Amino acid sequence: MTHPQYVLRPVHKDDFDEVFRLITTIGDGLTSLPLDPENIAHRIDDSQRAFDPLIRKPGGETYLFVLEDLETGKIIGTSGLLSRVGGFEPFYTYEMQQLKHEYAPLKIQMELKVLHLRKNHKGPTEICSLFLHKDYRSGGLGKLLSLSRFCFMKTFKERFDETILAELRGFINEDGKSPFWEAVGRKFFRDDYSKADILSGLGEKEFIETLMPEYPIYVSLLPKSARKVIGKVHDHTRPARKILFDEGFTETNEIDIFDAGPILTAPRSELRTWKESRLASLLEGNPDAGCSRQFLLMNQSLDFRAIRVNAQPRATDELIVSAKALSTLGLLPGEQAMCLPMETT
Fold it and tell me: Strands 318-321 and 278-284, how do they pair?
């Protein structure tokens, strides 16, 4: 694959129809991109403002990237970054804690798991909005969507926090219901999981602090159906979880308040992609099939571009790539790009 077939880039205003079409294929939804035309338009506008060159520190900006099929022009995937969670919209989680109960006269000792509602107004950077159309879930496109974001953060370090967070979708049953929500959230909110999730995605979060229980929840009092899905991911999220574990993310003691999905975290400088990606000069040519290797290549511009192609290493810091690869990245021969060998991913 000498010539790029797909490119990851920032979302544009004229991508609205394609992004909306893509989201309609998700089924049970994506929290950060709910199926609401007005919200999607706002998210696109917010993302365009996030790429302002004057930004020098994380202030809650939302970056949204799209994966475009270069042959058809279709948008086939999305991925995003939230420079800092919290701010005007608090970031809510349940924190799992262990409580010890002891009564010496009867020699009774108990350790109980308890969920505490936690509110964060100034949290770390969050990776979000990862979705790839089901017809394209092969050939490493999921890694292109996910890993390119880490290289963007590496290029523009000042825009993001030192810690990276990932909130993974929790388990949903065949009826589209969350067992955890049915046992906890519904008791206080009455509506179903999908409505609460959509409201949260639309930024309507006041109901969380107002209606959700402020006292600790003893896990042992929950039904088995809810207990067994705490920290369990949605079936569609398993590939994304593997990618993140391979990157160096680890599970925290916090879960999503709606579906009990796990929350992962990692220091950004310890991410595998952060450590293994490097700058290389791109030379125009025809990579030799016998000597070429597959790379993720990314420019260093706020007009970000990322592709996955075969390139031929010529020296420690040089790669031979096709003219099409250069033009897709918006680079001239001899200019540098961030590169990541895909054999190690």
Answer: parallel
Domain boundaries, the chain: 6-274, 277-344
CA separation (Å) from 147 to 29, 42, 97, 130, 262?
22, 25, 32, 11, 20
pLDDT band at 264 (very low <50, low <70, confident <90, very high): very high
**Do the beta carbons of residue 62 and residue 45 sit within 8 Å?**
no
Q: How many residues does the structure list for the chain?
A: 345
Pair of tokens at residue 297: 């290549």
> Looking at the annotation, which residues are catalytic?
234
What angle (nearest 5°) sits at the alpha carbon of residue 229, between those of residues 138 and 168?
45
**One fold for 6-274 and 277-344:** no
CATH T-level topology, domain 6-274: Aminopeptidase (3.40.630)
> Cα(135)–Cα(190) distance, rounded to whole angstroms?
36
User: Sign (positive/negative) of CA torsion 250, 82, 36, 78?
Assistant: negative
Q: What is the pLDDT of residues 102-127, one digit of tens each?
A: 888 888 888 899 999 888 777 799 99
Q: Residue 153 burial by CB count (10 A; 0-12/13-18/19+): exposed, middle or buried? A: buried
Centroid of chain to Cα 84: 13
pLDDT top residue among 200 and 79: 79
Residue with tokens 């939804």: 29
End-to-end CA distance of the chain: 17
Contacts (Cβ under 8 Å, ≥6 apart) of 221: none
Can you name the CATH fold of 277-344?
Barwin-like endoglucanases (2.40.40)
> Please, what is the angle between helix 16-23 and helix 37-50, to 10°?
120
- What b-and-e string marks burial along 242-251, b requiring 16 or more CB atoms within 10 Å of the CB? ebbeebbbeb
How far apart, in whole angstroms, are the C-alpha atoms of residue 117 and residue 21?
Answer: 35
